[in-house]
Amino acid sequence: GGKTTMSTQIPTQITVSVIIPTYNRKDSLLRTLESLARQTYPAERFEVIVVDDGGTDGTESITEQDFPFTLRYLRQENQGATAARNCGALQSSGEFLVFVDDDIRLQPETLKHLFEALNSPRTIVLGHLIPPETILGSSVFARLHTQDSARIIAETESEPVSFQECMTGLLCVRRNDFLALGMFQDPTGGWPNWDDVDFGYRAHQAGYQLVRVYSAIAEHWDYALADWRKACQRWQKAGYSGAKLLERYPVLANDISMFYDKGPINWKEDNLSLILRKLARQMASSGPVMWAMESLVPVLERRAPDSVVLRLLYRWIVSGYIYRGYRAGLRDLER
């Protein structure tokens, strides 16, 4: 793809390259850049590389603004976020890479905490994403969906996590390790493309440890959370592309719990418990049952917004959409 770059001279003391893929989200990107300008980590020690994936909203105007860090703007023809992240990594000059999405707002200490946690070899560090108050207040779904994650912070500073929890939204890795692992790859060719779980799995296979640092907090301005229907549509797409992920790595069928009971029944290999679970999932994801559950949601949101029943309904409905997407993906693969 065509590539343009605008940058000031790169200072020699840079140790960290922050890489942000973006596509037609200039306002959101500016919020991310402003949060990077407020980091306690010294601004002269990191550069920010914005990779514009062929956007048309005038994102290049960010280069006219003054930031305390070195800002580099790269542009590529539209190839998706995976290619944009790799493009930024290949152009980076830091010994360490921090990947940040363009809908993330970091707290002032976040870079410092990420960086401090990368103190042992063969480690990949993940930050802790939380929803901003404005999105939390925007829907019952957003509030219930995120209550559980907020509890974790109080319990632990950092902990090893499974490769399934790898996320490109806020990830820190040594540049040499990133290149040695083959960078990010697109295992599905469809959005969302599972490049984060794919990278986490390859890193896990190569003996790397993934660690989540709960003090490296950033707000994820995830607008799909504000509307459970939009969230369901995204999960359906994730289910669809997940079929391709499991075609590439069949062994992951048992590791990614999201798909555990959503495949066709294997009468020879599935035990009775799994057969019953798959039958129940099939029934719960059928048109009439989904219609009934979705009709109940607005009633419960009005009358019992804190009920366990509503929380379970959301979970079952999301699972139903994942099931639908996954099964559609399997059917298309068979064709």
Descriptive labels:
single chain; 335 residues; 10 strands; globular
Please give a structural write-up.
With 335 residues, this protein is an alpha/beta fold. Helix 8 packs across helix 11. The longest helix has 27 residues. It starts with a strand and ends with a helix. The mean pLDDT is 89.
Q: Give the number of DSSP strands.
A: 10
* Span of the ends, CA to CA: 32 Å
Major β-sheet, in short? 10 strands, mixed
Number of helices: 11
Any idea what the radius of gyration is?
A: 21 Å
**How does the helix and strand content classify structurally?**
alpha/beta
Annotate the secondary structure layout.
Layout lengths: L3 E4 L8 E7 L3 H12 L8 E7 L17 E6 L5 H11 L4 E5 L3 E3 L3 H8 L5 E8 L2 H4 L3 H16 L2 E4 L8 E5 H6 L14 H11 L3 E12 L7 H21 L23 H13 L2 H17 L4 H27 L1
Parallel strand pairs: 2-3, 2-5, 3-4, 7-10
Antiparallel strand pairs: 1-4, 5-9, 6-10, 7-9, 8-10
Report a brief summary of the structure.
The protein has 335 residues and is an alpha/beta fold. Helices cover 44% and strands 18% of the residues.
